[in-house]
Design goal:
This protein has one domain: 3-Layer(aba) Sandwich (Rossmann fold). The chain contains 6 helices and 7 strands. The longest helix has 14 residues.
Length: about 160
């Protein structure tokens, strides 16, 4: 799994980086987001949505209580939040894998809550794994890890641009 790191110094920069990633997406892929509360996971999801062409008047908000929000852009965007889930079996009840394999882009906040998503204790799931680290009040270190050929190609294009 290759790794690249970006440092942003504001929510706007985090959104802009994620927007660039969203603009590079040309096929279905999953983006697994992890990081502490307030690290910028929803901000990152907003940037991906903008890059996919989700209309700017459609608010992209954390699906903490609904667990999944659907947005229409160049590709469908399935925005998941696993924070309130307490057991991996709830992922099956949510049908997350069905959406993830449905031909759209899935952005999963709190992916590190369950080993089977984040790759802990076993191989990482295909896609781009993004870890947002709080370095200072508005400074973030964004660690991007590609798992799978499509993710490798995407990150190569992103960092070459």
């Amino acid at each position: 799994m290759s790794e690249r790191v970006v440092v942003t110094v504001s929510p706007e920069e985090t959104r802009a980086f994620a927007r660039s990633l969203g603009e590079q997406l040309d096929k279905p892929l999953t983006i697994w987001l992890s990081g502490p509360l307030g690290a910028g996971k929803t901000c990152f999801a907003q940037g991906v949505a903008a890059g996919l062409g989700v209309p700017p008047d459609e608010p992209v908000v954390s699906p903490s209580y609904t667990l999944m929000n659907l947005y229409q852009g160049r590709l469908p965007l399935y925005h998941f939040d696993y924070y309130r889930l307490s057991h991996p079996d709830e992922l099956d009840d949510l049908g997350g894998d069905e959406f993830i394999e449905d031909g759209g882009v899935s952005v999963v906040e709190w992916a590190d809550r369950f080993d089977r998503c984040a790759g802990y204790g076993g191989g990482a799931r295909a896609g781009v794994h993004i870890e947002l680290k709080i370095v200072a009040a508005s400074r973030r270190e964004i660690v991007c890890r590609a798992c799978g050929t499509d993710a490798e190609v995407l990150l190569s294009r992103l960092f070459a641009a």
